[in-house]
Design a protein that fits this description.
- Three copies of one chain form a homotrimer.
- Chain A is an alpha/beta fold.
- Chain A has two domains: about 160 residues, Rossmann fold (3-Layer(aba) Sandwich), CATH 3.40.50.1370; about 150 residues, 3-Layer(aba) Sandwich (Rossmann fold), CATH 3.40.50.
- Chain A is about 40% helix and about 15% strand.
- The first copy, chain A, contains 13 helices and nine strands.
- In chain A, strands 7-6-5-8-9 form a five-stranded parallel beta sheet.
- Chains in contact: A-B, A-C, B-C.
- Chains A and C meet through β2 and α4 of A and α3 and α13 of C.
Chain lengths: ~325, ~325, ~325
Amino acid sequence: MRENLQLNEAGELRHLLSIEGLKREHLERILDIAESFAVLPGRQVKKVPLLRGRIVTNLFFENSTRTRTTFELAAKLLSADVINFNVSVSATSKGETLLDTLRNLEAMHSDLFVVRHQHSGAAHFIARHVAPGVSVINAGDGWHAHPTQALLDMFTIRRHKGDFTPLRVAIVGDIQHSRVARSQIMALNTLGVTEVRIIGPCTLLPAEARSLGVHLYHDLESGLEEVDVIIMLRLQRERMEGALLPSAHEYFQLYGLTEARLKRARPDAIVMHPGPINRGVEIASEVADGPRSVILQQVSYGIAVRMAVMSLILGARGGENE
Amino acid sequence: MRENLQLNEAGELRHLLSIEGLKREHLERILDIAESFAVLPGRQVKKVPLLRGRIVTNLFFENSTRTRTTFELAAKLLSADVINFNVSVSATSKGETLLDTLRNLEAMHSDLFVVRHQHSGAAHFIARHVAPGVSVINAGDGWHAHPTQALLDMFTIRRHKGDFTPLRVAIVGDIQHSRVARSQIMALNTLGVTEVRIIGPCTLLPAEARSLGVHLYHDLESGLEEVDVIIMLRLQRERMEGALLPSAHEYFQLYGLTEARLKRARPDAIVMHPGPINRGVEIASEVADGPRSVILQQVSYGIAVRMAVMSLILGARGGENE
Amino acid sequence: MRENLQLNEAGELRHLLSIEGLKREHLERILDIAESFAVLPGRQVKKVPLLRGRIVTNLFFENSTRTRTTFELAAKLLSADVINFNVSVSATSKGETLLDTLRNLEAMHSDLFVVRHQHSGAAHFIARHVAPGVSVINAGDGWHAHPTQALLDMFTIRRHKGDFTPLRVAIVGDIQHSRVARSQIMALNTLGVTEVRIIGPCTLLPAEARSLGVHLYHDLESGLEEVDVIIMLRLQRERMEGALLPSAHEYFQLYGLTEARLKRARPDAIVMHPGPINRGVEIASEVADGPRSVILQQVSYGIAVRMAVMSLILGARGGENE
């Protein structure tokens, strides 16, 4: 049972591996804590001593400077020490097994591993093998999950819309290969929105859509009708080489978010994107930079949400340090 | 107006982008603050809590381990947290525009960006776009400017010579392609030295020499006559492949600083070099290691000067943190 | 005299370059201090403020993420600031001499350099040239020495066996090319064990074995007879390409540690390995994961031992900081 792996006996969060298996209370708890870390624009960021004396290790098997930096910043703002361990250049290349690498890392007494891996399930595998006192946060594994990204998106939505219940949310783009979308759908449904729509070409929408609790649209304009939130996904250019997609230009013709199309949504709809954006591919510049875009707020809230997850997880293990 | 970009409404330093646009008072203020950080040889370096709780991000679009390390050390001695963001391996390679990368970084609430970029004007561009609460230090942009290097050179000169007014300073080497030389000339003239001479082959001296307020010499020995300070520049070996220069050996014959040539300068002249030095190319080992060389003091003072700039800039924005 | 280089006038440890030249008291002192840092399994690691305000620079001329990380973690647990300086990508590639690089680093006022280099003697060379207030720890130089690895092995042995005097210790594998083995033999003899045996094929045992004070065995099973401690070395796969060794499979047939062979040793013998292990090459999984294996404890103790060396060395230089 995966949900058990994430929670301790008291039902508190010990690892964050996926949104699956978490209850509405867990998600709301994280969003509530994040409120206390959310910095008002222009205000100076303050460090808080919550994780003083703790060691956070960024364990990146896949290079992602931006995500790593976000976690590093969040940990440092909580006064933790950070070790960046880029595993791709290290031990596994010496023929050591992943499990041996992990046992070694565990013996080094990190309090928390932030794990990024190109294979689905890697963070779960690691969480199953770490010692009792060690936690794991999934910072993206294969096509599977990217729960902190989904949580920061939920935080952004809640800040702008308040209540989740009445919302219709559209996710546009390559849902099939997106760990971000998978986690977002799970989170939106757990938080009880009215409707989640996924919009994209047949080749990029998942076959199991119905079981995900979403409505499928192949036509962008009808899909956007009356929605409150539009989440654009980043188009991986590799997909185009894989014959799953026509050219970037043609994609934009069909699925690019323009001012004209945005009018189909509700007048107070917000536009989100996990970044980095491809201007003129999945989104027009006028929209990305326009008044409905909350893309940069997502980045900023990402710090607060990651601080919330880290402090909640390490707090659940009990015990002040220093 | 570039000078306005660097200063806030009260005329205080908000960014350090170039020496151009700064007044004598600004430079002297930095040098005065650096005095308080300058460590005596053998004394133990002490951290000071001036920037506790602040985040300094090293934003290096061009690899320079040495410069990055110097800023990292200066920031840590001021008790700031440091994030190293090597942009060459990151987002811009994913097709994101520079401006989008920056907005993202800004949303991550760094207090200060230390920017190194291969293109002239990059630091100005970034400073023009950051949020009100964010500062920028130029750590070298193309051939344009490298103001902290020039300031540490001024600090070194002042420590050895006291007053700038009576000094004659010679800068020797590839002035044309040197952001260091450009910043040094500006600083020396702002601080009111008697004379700045630039010495080198025609191909390496700038056409606009006269407007820079310097005297040109193609002959090293006459150029060194009676000078108080000799600044040797590092010869970029790429120049020799570009047909702008003969061989390293030939260059040394004409422009290498030897003990014999050093005798042309005043008996108490000091010899400077920004490092790393090419022994036997622009400078003889006997001079680099000799009693007149202050090359290693420059490195050491570089920490104090960078601490001064950082604390001044972040202080000018007001507000204690934590 | 190398030993003088490591000690100050009072006979205290100033650098740690090799086990050679250290007395039994020095080693025991380090092990005693490490006891105070050794964390019990499951207990939360605590930072101690012993090196607050000090700067530790990891100076790695050879890439080794794991070793670097271990030192970084140890330094941070002592509250030092850490600068990672990967020299392979830096100044030396610009044609600067090693000595010039070092002088520059020294001018940057690091308190301690942790040095890894592919050439034997590099750490000694550096220690000979640093300023009076700067210390050096050898984190592995060529085939020469890796003293902190040997010390953590001694610590592991002492924790399990108490007294060194009655012990018989076997070291198995490529002794000839192993800086680890060289340091282990030196440490074991200095600590007064009854017997050190080295076991391996002719091509991998050193010619000067007799002068090292060890007994040679080419047959694994007779070599293991009645030993208290078995130290397996990692087999470098490059050796096999160099015709010094048959295949990995054949090596395992002759020198791989299996349960059956382990029975030759004393019933309470412990099995050690510096990691990363090659399962099925030098050691069978059943042994590596078995009840006699203390391999993961070695990693954990490695942090405590490195903390001990760092705090001892920087303490010997006198003076509290901050």
